[in-house]
Amino acid sequence: MENQCEPDPQFADLFAQVSDLLTQMDALKSELAGLDHAAICPSCGSKVSDTQRFCPECGCKNDSYGKWKAEAEAAEEARRAAKDTEQADRKARKAEKFAQETVFETTAETRSADDVILSAADATTCDEEY
To answer: Where are the beta strands (DSSP E) in 1-130?
Structure first.
């Protein structure tokens, strides 16, 4: 709603302020409508739900029809991907921990019962010599 005539110079600043405030109000209306999964009709300015194909007031086509659903699906897909990544990381850490434990078990020196008996006999012999 623009005025085509030139305002008096004494009122020019006031008209500029009003114009700026109207622009800010339109931006805030759009933001508020977005929170309700709705849009503002570009033709008549009424609130139109994203689930409606056309404006109920003037019949103008709603360009944001179904937009929130696509955004919600994308957010859900991102959440699932993050969860899958977290599970994969957890499995990798578990496998790494298991591999480290296995390495310790396999690198430990294995001794037969005969070796243990001989070692004990050697220790006894050493004690007798001193």
So the answer is: 38-40, 47-49
Cβ within 8 Å of residue 48, ≥6 positions away: 33, 38, 39, 40, 41, 54, 55, 56, 62, 64
Task: Give the separation between CA 45 and CA 29, rounded to whole angstroms.
Answer: 9
Question: Do residues 52 and 62 touch, judged by C-beta distance below 8 A?
Answer: yes
- What is the per-residue pLDDT across 18-43, written as a single tens digit (0 to 9) for each? 999 999 998 887 777 666 677 888 88
What residue type is assigned to position 102 of the chain? T
Looking at every residue in the chain, the average pLDDT score rounds to 76
Short-list 48, 75, 70, 72, CA closest to 61: 48
For the cut 60, the answer to whether the pLDDT of residue 14 exceeds it is yes
Residue 80: pLDDT band (50, 70, 90) is: very high
- Contact between 48 and 36 (Cβ < 8 Å): no
Radius of gyration of the chain (CA): 39
- What the block records as the tokens of 126 is 């050493």
Cut 0.70: pTM above it: no
